[in-house]
Amino acid sequence: MVSSWRVQQAAQDIRAGAVIAYPTEAVWGLGCDPWDEEAVYRLLAIKSRPVEKGLILIADNIRQFDFLFEDFPQLWLDRMASTWPGPNTWLVPHQNLLPEWITGIHETVALRVTDHPTVRELCALVGPLISTSANPAGRPAARSRLRVEQYFRGQIDGVLGGSLGAEPLNKLLPEALSQLPQDIQPEVFHQSGKNHDAVTAERYRNVGVARRLRHSYRTWPKPMAGPIWWSAAQAH
């Protein structure tokens, strides 16, 4: 278990604009303050990740995302809450409440409530964080501190030590959202043994997804596409 003072120091660094590495459920991640535009663009440059792809936000509890959920049907909130905290990532409509350096070119944003104790403590101190797998684009996600340092020595501002969670890289959660009516069934994304960059690339190559979801949710009073869920132990 990482000592609280180390987490507090990491939180202080993040508030000052730092990009840091930390262990998550299955791989190491890179993170920073999502509202710090300079920090986010520096993180993207470190990873060689195009801003257009968008990034994940992680939190220590669902209430940290309340500012995005004001107009959401209770059914959506209940389904998301039932899968959190955990390695499950939802794509939800951001309704232009987030800057483009978080959302990229997309109408949705990826959200996760982490169950990793160190990251939860960090988010409790600083609020939601940008989180992305600790690897340069096209390279395997780091699964050790040594690999993080090999990838990013001299480029990031700090490493918050600790152990990875217990989630295997190829975990698939048996969820089909079967409790939702058939005419409002969101699409479910499963990630098996792939890092987040690979999954988001696949997801966003299929530009028809957003259109299909808008069509599927036409029965809701508000013209807003519903959340999409993929179960992904390493979605960072």
Automatic annotation (TrEMBL):
Cellular compartment(s): Cytoplasm
Coiled coil start-end: none
SUPFAM superfamilies the UniProt entry points to: UDP-Glycosyltransferase/glycogen phosphorylase, YrdC/RibB
Protein name: Threonylcarbamoyl-AMP synthase
Name of one Pfam family that matches: Sua5_yciO_yrdC
GO biological process entries: regulation of translational fidelity; tRNA threonylcarbamoyladenosine modification
Gene Ontology MF term list: ATP binding; double-stranded RNA binding; hexosyltransferase activity; L-threonylcarbamoyladenylate synthase; tRNA binding
Reaction catalysis annotation: L-threonine + hydrogencarbonate + ATP = L-threonylcarbamoyladenylate + diphosphate + H2O
Matches recorded under InterPro entries: DHBP_synth_RibB-like_a/b_dom (IPR017945), Sua5-like_dom (IPR006070), TC-AMP_synthase (IPR023535), TC-AMP_synthase_SUA5 (IPR050156)
